[in-house]
What we know:
Blueprint: E1 9-12, H1 16-28, E2 35-38, H2 42-52, E3 55-57, H3 61-66, E4 70-73, H4 78-88, E5 97-100, H5 106-118, E6 122-125, E7 128-129, H6 132-137, E8 140-142, E9 145-146, H7 148-154, E10 163-166, E11 169-170, H8 174-205, H9 209-219, H10 225-234, H11 236-239, H12 246-263, H13 268-284, H14 293-300
Parallel strand pairs: 1-2, 1-4, 2-3, 4-5, 5-6, 8-10, 9-11
Antiparallel strand pairs: 7-8
Amino acid sequence: MENALEPQMAFLGIGNIGRGMTKNLVSKTILRRPLLLWNRTYETAVDHSTAIGHSEAIRTIEEAVARSDVIWSCLSNQEAVFEAFEHALKADVMGKLFVESSTLTPAATNELGQMTIHAGAEFVAMPVFGEPSMADAGILTCVPCGKAESVNRIRPYLVGGVARAIIDLSDEKPGTASLLKLVGNTFILNTMEMIAEGHVFAEKTGLGVEILQKLIATVFPAGPSMTYSKRMSSGDYSQGKPMASIGLAREIAAHVLKVADEAGVCLPAYETTVKHLAAVDQRAGAHYDISAIYGVVRLESGLSFDNTPDHSMQ
Length: 314
């Protein structure tokens, strides 16, 4: 059982978000025991452990679970989450706490919570809002959801550790957090679409992107608008390291549209963005960054996909 002063924690998934979260767990929170790290590619866990210190790479999920009191996961997709939990719940998990931060459908999260609790463990669904640079800086927004006593076990590692804020959904059904995450996803993609269209509008009318960015910085100083704008104006949308891949974005979008359809909700603005995601996938591949929808919006208005100097109007 967990020593209240020295809980052992394991983290499953060293992806774009998991890398930042684990770095901050080690550097900004009190972990009296080294953080156990598991990743599908073991060498990734080894390299990351070397980089952040006070951690240990683990070869199997079973070992990570057996040695830990708190098991925190942030994996690439819903299939990977269920596969990981199938391995994890084979062990004796009585009294252990599972914290799940991947993006899942509400139904899948509720099912996962029931499986975990039935096995004798505690479960907190905790999706996060923020892109990789925010994870790296420890300024994510976390949405912990589950029994209040379970949420309290993970709370010391959140604000000041991996997060700048939490949206506390204690004692709500776990799927509530996933539903909020999906609704939030529509805000994120719609904002990106709005910025992409604004950039093209400014460029084609002669206003220019620099003047547009003065507006964004003054009127919309908080939030991701300027981050997206700079990514588009710099060309990183097609040349830089992806914040989030088109493939992952399309998978999450499918979850959103399924939930919306089941509820009888129309999301025309979001559907436009999803159409642009599909166009990027077809043109450049699923590995491209989601902000590359800007390239598609450019094409629709007679500009080149890339905004580099050697690509002018078609």
